[in-house]
Amino acid sequence: MKKLQQISLAMMFFALMFYSQTITAQHHEMNMRQNQECEGINSKIPNLTEQQEAQIKTLRIVHMKKVQDLKNLIDVKNAELKVLQTANKPDLSAINKKIDEKASLKTELEKERAAFRQKIRALLTDEQKVVFDSKMHKNKHHKMGAHEKHRMHKKGMGQHKMMH
Asked: What's the CA angle centered on 82, arms 112 and 89, to 5 degrees?
């Protein structure tokens, strides 16, 4: 019986490692895109002074470090959640607690993004703010990943089917 438990633990460990590698690769790709978008902020805002560009660059670096840390923690929570959900005897209380921890991190991430945008806005003139706000709004919809687009498309199709 102990041997079976050891084998199960080893299998869960390897599954967790594989899952973590996959998530890490996906986040690396997302971070590359986000880095390019953040660097592109300067080129999208008209008439930035050198001082504004330097301040935005500094804010971006600090922001990206915080975002990366939060995303890494979310990855850990996802992996821990998967282990809890696939256990021989899942503990629903522990699963719910892990979901709450993950949700809290996602909220913190969204707040960090909002704070970053406001810090940039504080550096801009009214004219620059108008352009920045319109570009950020467009990027939010353009940046939507394939998973979200698929889910929205599927949801839309499901509603279409209901009408018939």
From this structure: 135
DSSP state of 145: -
The owner of tokens 């079976």 is 4
The answer to whether the CB of 48 falls within 8 A of the CB of 128 is: yes
The single residue listed with the structure tokens 């993950």 is: 102
Residue type, 17: M
C-alpha 59: how far from its chain's center?
Answer: 18
Q: Which of 125, 126, 109 is nearest to 34 (CA)?
A: 109
What phi, psi does 72 have (nearest 5°)?
Answer: -65, -40
Hey, what amino acid is at 123?
L
For the stretch 32-77, pLDDT in tens is 555 544 556 766 888 999 999 999 999 999 999 999 999 999 999 9
Give, as one character, the DSSP assignment of residue 49.
-
Q: In the chain, which ranges are continuous DSSP H helix?
A: 2-44, 50-85, 92-123, 126-142, 146-163
Rounded distance, CA 164 to CA 70, Å? 44
In the chain, beta strands by DSSP E: none
